[in-house]
Amino acid sequence: MNIGIQPASLTTDWASGRVDGAGVVRARRTIGDLHGLFTDEAARAALPQDRLAYATECAFPVAEGTAGGLFWGTTIIEPGLVGDEYLMTKGHFHAHADRTEFYFTYAGEGLLLLMDRARRCRAERMVAGSTHAIPPDTAHRTINIGSVPLSFGACWPSDAGHDYAAIARDGFAARVRRIAGVATVVAA
Ligand code: M6P
Ligand code: ZN
Fold first, then answer.
1. Is the CB of 37 under 6 A from ligand 1?
2. pLDDT at residue 134 tops 90
């Protein structure tokens, strides 16, 4: 009996990171969405508020909150500065705090900023191929320190959820600033 062979319902372009397929959800974060993220709020407010900061393309094969499932997505952060800080993601803890995640870089140059519950920060360099295991109870934010888009993939549990509130309230304890032309991690 011929069972048949179907193409995969989901594709990832390994050069660009672009994810495609039925049910892929695309979202945009604009400069306007990043209110309060940067030290220099006046510099952020002076930029076009509808300018793209980063885009996500994600596949959710099971419902959000399902135990045992996995989500898959790509984030592409535009190059650029707000004051002396580079464009970056909002960053989050997981709502289900012990849930972990993998990040992996397709293209561009970035930093992955990690912060534990004691607000201790460290940063890992993101270049094509770099693969990052995000531990439990660790906030994660990505920063594009290059001059081209930073594209990275993520795979995370479908019951991890996003907790943005702690970061919105307290921020990260470290920031990445462009100092004498060099991306530098400094205490916030
Ligand atoms: C990765 C994953 C997503 C996340 C996205 C953008 O793709 O971690 O869950 O939504 O980055 O990051 P943030 O939600 O912090 O803006
Ligand atoms: Zn996450």
1. no
2. yes
